[in-house]
Design brief:
The chain is built from eleven helices and 14 strands. It is of the alpha/beta class. Helix content is about 40%, strand content about 20%. Helix 1 packs across helix 10. It has two domains: about 200 residues, Rossmann fold, CATH 3.40.50; about 150 residues, Response regulator (Rossmann fold, 3-Layer(aba) Sandwich).
Length: about 350
Amino acid sequence: MSPIKLAAIYNLTGGQSSLDVPSWQGAGLAVAEANEQGGVLGRPVELLLWDGGTDPAMLGLMTTELLGRNPDVSALFGLSDTDMVLAAANSCAAVEHLFVTSGATSPHLPQQVPTYLYLACFGDNVQAAAAAEYAYREMGARTAAVLYRRDDTFTELLQGYFNTSFAALGGQIISARSYASLDEVAQLSEGVPPVDLLFFSAAPDDVIDGISRLRAAGLAAPIMGGDSFDLGDAWGDHPALSDVYFTTHAFVDSANPDPAMAAFMAAYRQAYPGQEASAFAALGYDTARLIVAAVAEAGSDAPATVLAALPQVSGFRGLTGTIRYDNGSRIPSKSVTVLQVHAGRMSLAGQFVPSKIPQP
């Protein structure tokens, strides 16, 4: 019996690997569990894995090559960065194949790749609005400084949406500065007037080193960021870091009372000894399960039927929230989780849908 083929594209090497390796592992676990339960449509699921190397140029060529070798792939998914997704998804669209990003959060993506690109995660405008609302209403922040990596789509969009949302609530952005390398981070923090909050819109590999440099430079204010801060147990290696907050997709922790999360974390530990699941692992797990559900909904593994079936999968309950695509949107409506880091330990600070979301 021929398998149903899915393809996962992740950056297992390079600067995006801290997010993509857990996401890929979560996806692999989901497919293994699906096969243990009999596969889909009475057939096993075969998952192809390709490493993008955190190189957009290579990703585009690699995706074209993958589909040239495997035109019978039902759908492709993966990646956690907007620029990386654009390279892969445009190659999919060129041959009319579905691509679902598990972790890239730009709300512009569906317009940039019409028809063939869906998100399994929320958009940056949603998580930035949640960050601003939590800072203003729960932390009492009225002034903020913003520091962001320039020439990176994710970091630039996130800080822009935060600025808009914080100002709309009545907050004041005292300064907004960009950096090109971590060597600039501490220097840029100097001369900023005292503020209630620093919003640090950073790439994943900048987060812990950048925060350590900011603290060493004397910045005492709480630091908030987006889902690039969700580095799992890496925080435990830095017990000196505290008063850090970030938005993410789920609270993946033993303190989460959801039995489905507990089961996932236990299965992840068994599949990947010595490793703890993160929110990006949960996103990969949810995305693979979502596509398997779309194949089941379609009753076929043909790429066109799977594409048409995906928005018809109603009320898919994932670890990262219920996924549904309303009113023709290809971005799901989902809540945002806010986590706090104290002494290298993450805890749940809040979970909600922000009341006002800026337009993409």
